[in-house]
């Protein structure tokens, strides 16, 4: 059973960088051919895919967030990390990490973590 757990600060000030980590257990983030994504849901809105890091280490980003987003990984800890720079209150959302493969739906999700951007 694969489990994902998000961690990071729940409150970030405007203009700062939001940093979240997803810790994966029950499976390796380097296993072919899985992709490990960050997804968020602002209050009252739908899910938004932000980006992913592949089993190979390649990264992919949403065009709308690409200039502010960086995803990296630590294979020794079986973790991957999201950094979102220059945050504004519009970045307030529940942030999820999830596993996917190709065009298949995400099969495992973290429980989500609330991040609020406020001074």
Terminus-to-terminus distance: 39 Å
User: How much β-strand is present in the residues?
Assistant: over 45%
In total, the number of strands is 11
Outline type = globular
Question: H/E order of the elements?
Answer: EEEEEEEEEEE
Largest sheet: 7 strands, mixed
Average pLDDT rating = 97
**Classification by helices and strands:** mainly beta
Q: Helical stretch count?
A: 0
Helical content (DSSP H or I, runs of 4+): under 10%
| Radius of gyration from CA coordinates | 13 Å
Low-pLDDT residue intervals, each spanning 5 or more residues: none
What does this structure look like?
The chain is mostly beta strands. The chain is built from no helices and 11 strands. It starts with a strand and ends with a strand. 28% of the residues are buried.
Reconstruct the topology from this structure.
Layout: E1 3-7, E2 11-12, E3 18-25, E4 35-41, E5 48-54, E6 59-61, E7 69-74, E8 79-84, E9 93-100, E10 108-109, E11 113-117
Parallel strand pairs: 2-11
Antiparallel strand pairs: 1-3, 3-8, 4-5, 4-9, 5-6, 7-8, 9-10, 9-11
Record keyword descriptors for this entry:
single chain, about 120 residues
Write a concise synopsis of the structure shown.
This protein is mostly beta strands and 119 residues long. The chain has strands at residues 3-7, 11-12, 18-25, 35-41, 48-54, 59-61, 69-74, 79-84, 93-100, 108-109, 113-117.
């Amino acid at each position: 059973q694969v489990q994902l757990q998000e961690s990071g600060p729940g409150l970030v000030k405007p203009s700062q960088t939001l940093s979240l980590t997803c810790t994966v257990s029950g499976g390796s983030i380097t296993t072919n051919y899985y992709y490990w994504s960050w997804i968020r849901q602002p209050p009252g809105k739908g899910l938004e895919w932000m980006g992913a890091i592949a089993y190979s280490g390649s990264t992919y980003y949403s065009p709308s967030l690409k200039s502010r987003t960086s995803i990296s990984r630590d294979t020794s800890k079986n973790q991957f990390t999201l950094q979102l720079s220059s945050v504004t209150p519009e970045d307030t959302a529940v942030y999820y990490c999830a596993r996917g493969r190709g065009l298949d739906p995400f099969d495992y999700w973290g429980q989500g973590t609330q991040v609020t951007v406020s001074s």
